[in-house]
Amino acid sequence: MSLAGIVPALSSRLYAAGSDVLKVGLIGCGGRGTGATTQSLMGVDKSVKLWAMADLFQDQLDACYNMLSKGAKGRYDRVDFDGLPDQMDVPEQRRFVGFDAYQKLLASGVDMVILATPPHFRSEHFEAAVKAGKHVFMEKPVATDPVGVRRIIAAAKLAEEKKQSVVAGTQRRHQLHYVEIMKRIHDGAIGEIVGAQCYWNGAGGSLRSEKPAEMSDMEWQCRHWYYFCWLCGDHIVEQHVHNIDIMNWAFGGHPVQCMGLGGRAVREGGNIWDHFAIEFEYPGGARVLSMCRQIPGCSDRVSERIVGTKGFAYIDGASGFIKGENAYEGPASPNPYVQEHVDLIRSIRQGAALNEGVQVAESTMAAIIGRMSAYTGRALKWDWAMNASKLDLSPPKYTFGDLPVAPVPVPGKTPLI
Amino acid sequence: MKTKASQETPDLSRRDFIRTSAALGAAAWAAGTSRMFAAGSDKIRVGLIGCGGRGTYDTTNCLNAAQNVELVAMGDLFGDRLDRCRKQLTKELGLKVKVTDETCFTGWDAHKKVLACELDLVILTEPPHFRPAHLRAAVEAGKHVFMEKPVAVDPVGVRSVIESSQMAEQKKLTIVGGTQSRRMAHLIEGMKRIRDGDIGRIIGGQCVRIGDGMLTWSQETKVRQPGWSDMEWQLRRWLFLTWLSGDFIVEMHIHNLDKMNWAMDAHPMQCVGLGGRQVRTGPEYGDAYDHFAVEYEYPDGVRIEYMGAQMDKVTTRQDAQVVGTKGRVYMDSGNFVIEGNKPFKYDGPSPSPVIKQHADQIAAIRNGERLNEGRRVAESTLTCIMGRMSAYTGRAMKWDWAMNASKLDLSPPKYEFGDLPPRPVAMPGQTPLI
After folding, report:
1. Beta carbons within 10 angstroms of residue A402's beta carbon
2. pTM surpassing 0.95?
3. Whole-number mean pLDDT of chain B?
4. Cβ <8 Å between A277 and B274
5. In b/e form, how buried is each residue of A361-375, taking b as 16+ CB within 10 angstroms?
6. How far apart are the first and last CA of chain A?
7. Which of B368, B371, B346 minimizes the C-alpha distance to B357?
8. Closest chain B C-alpha to A296 CA, distance in angstroms
9. Arithmetic mean of pLDDT, B201-224
10. Mutate which of A259, A261, A310, A314 to disrupt the B interface (most B C-beta within 10 Å)?
11. Which ranges of A192-311 does DSSP label H, i.e. alpha helix?
């Protein structure tokens, strides 16, 4: 995907049988869902309307509705915004709650959906959205296990056939300095790529509060989804996928194998870890370091570095450059969280389907095999994980009842499934 | 800890020894200074300080590395360790072991008593914490030193070792460090090719060592015995106490990181690391971690990634890769392979490096040649220490700071068999950087 060459003006093609209103449904009304919705509505195309909302919890949905109506302060992934009531048409009967809320939303007449639930649910929701003929913006990661990844890939291929657009929340793919540097790398500016590093070393929290006695295990875990691997995929998948995605982008494909380690040095509650280091091997034998940490009070680093025989590229969220034979300074980039929606809506308007489904599934899978290797202490091949792994972290049933927490993984003991 | 030294390290004949040395370019031997050593005799009298598994192994190799080398004194903190070692060495080496009850010493000052004996060369193989102090005492006593790696557990110790090495230089004493990879023929030949530019300019690399949780190490000390003070239990479990061993990234994986320093012909400029303990979580494993990952940045921004773990039932690996603009090196304990413009695969002989390191030193002593590896092994030790410090604290760190400014000194308040509360396991973001 490249920004260059796409005409900035909107096509005059009318959308959806005579109406130019693009009806958006939001599935997953948490912080990221709220942010993604503002970015979808606040692009240049003002005929985008929020049409329906769905969440597991009523309070979550209400809070999101209020925030979108009245505005809110910015945070890392969105700017300050005023209320967007003019672009909202979400009456009570199009606000859905519960495990099947997404089905009701998909039947409510929306053209496009934003999938921003905890990652575990993504594959089921994505598959249903594609089958229902919807365009999709889906947050990363798109699964927490290989079974989920396979489901995403199958649905992404179906979307391809049906010419539905699929854009993923790996927003660096829509960030100008990333696009420009990557274009040059692919044109040979740093020679043959022989190594790389990517990092997300930052802070992270703990789940210290106790589950209220009257609350079910399922509700407790879903409300604190980040701390439970089956829901979140662990932070290497949930967060560091951004940087691993850049590695796949640079190499033009996924790793062939990996070996990882990690653990939980500080974090409390739930069952995810707080640090990982993975060596990924890409075709041709290039080895790539992936390092991620969620521990407060440490040295932070969120960036990527790609090493070639003629130079290297450094990129982070703010800037990037190439050093070596073909030195280059990357440009300033427009807000990528907005840009990804601009690109998506433009592709829908122009009928030129963008489809990032397989790409984000492969980046998710790379992060998952890193996690699986670290959890078990076993080196892993991509092909085995993609084709043979039976790991499926789904709970036995989706009801608000008992759900024992899986133990924190111990390498050498946690089985490779 | 290997003890079957007699099987693995045959007593080389003098002729074999000369041939091996010459083949590996030991110019020292060829120099032909037939100066007799030690007042008319070329006998080398050896003292051993630190009678554990490694001390037994090194002494065996040392005495087998050349003719006319004898063990004359032994010292250890514990009588039982010394007795066991003496018995084994006597069995392995027979008449080369000349120690008597009068030249066997135990206790905190055993090293001083060993050094007061008539000897030429001392082998330092006590837990690494003691190395800086024992090295200093040995150099002050005018002895040649073979010291096991690592040579310190903290920057204060590293600085002391470097200073002692400089003193040894002035006193024309030899120092050899037990980083035996430096004497592996395939690495010597391969590194020469790297230095000759066969892979172009180095632009990256990785080293990985994963496996062996060491859970069966010193089984008899796993459970604290009644009557053992804190200090005694920690000393007997030294491998898992950071103040004594430096943690496994320092204690064992120095071999791997030393190879990267060798390939780079430099020490790193900075590092950032992470780690923790996920398997060895009981008090019998002290405060040691069981996994580390450190990115080292060498001059010109070259990044070398290290991953290390001591765990069982995981995929075992021990290898390294160095990537250059014109090729790539793969190396492990037996292989050195270059792919690229100038492909190469080592298929020459592999004489025992653990014999060679002693043979080289004995030859240097006998010929009055300079041989001082003190600073080099100190730098490799600090490479590992700064990786550990970075992982323990969660802080990125510069070499210059660690070498010159860090005040980290893991010494206990006093050396006596008494209370010594175990240090807490390091918590990144909370453990202070000192």
Report:
1. 10
2. no
3. 91
4. yes
5. bbbbbbbbbbbbbbb
6. 34
7. B371
8. 6
9. 95
10. A261
11. 217-223, 229-232, 235-238, 241-251
For B272, nearest residue in chain A (alpha carbons): A299
CA A138 – CA A210 distance, rounded (Å): 31
Could you report the per-residue pLDDT of A258-289, keeping only the tens digit for each? 999 999 999 999 999 999 999 999 999 999 99
Residue in B204, B272, B323 closest to A299 by CB: B272
Task: Report CA-CA distances (Å) from B31 to B25, B34, B261.
Answer: 11, 9, 29
Question: Between chains, do B328 and A285 touch, taking CB under 8 Å as contact?
Answer: yes
A86-128 pLDDT, tens digit per residue, is 999 999 999 999 999 999 999 999 999 999 999 999 999 999 9
Q: What is the mean pLDDT of residues A153-180?
A: 97
Which three-class secondary structure state does DSSP give residue A246?
helix
Phi and psi (nearest 5°) for B59?
-65, -45
> Is B305–A279 a contact, with Cβ atoms under 8 angstroms apart?
yes
Q: Which of A295, A310, A412 sits opposite B429 (nearest CB)?
A: A295
Cβ atoms of residues B325 and A309 within 8 Å: yes
Chain A residues closer than 8 Å to B427 by CB: 265-266
In chain A, residues 252-271 whose CB comes closer than 8 Å to chain B: 259, 261-266
What average pLDDT score do residues B277-300 get? 97
Distances in whole angstroms, Cα of residue A154 to Cα of each of A101, A119, A128, A365, A367: 23, 17, 12, 14, 19
- β-strand partners of B75: B49, B105
Question: Among all chains, which residue has been given the structure tokens 């949905």?
Answer: A61
Would you say the ipTM is above 0.95?
A: no
| Res A249 pLDDT > 80 | yes
User: How far is it, in rounded angstroms, from Cα A279 to Cα A158?
Assistant: 33
- Name, in order, each residue with C-beta under 8 angstroms of A92's C-beta and a sequence gap of 6 or more: none
H/E element holding A321?
strand A320-324
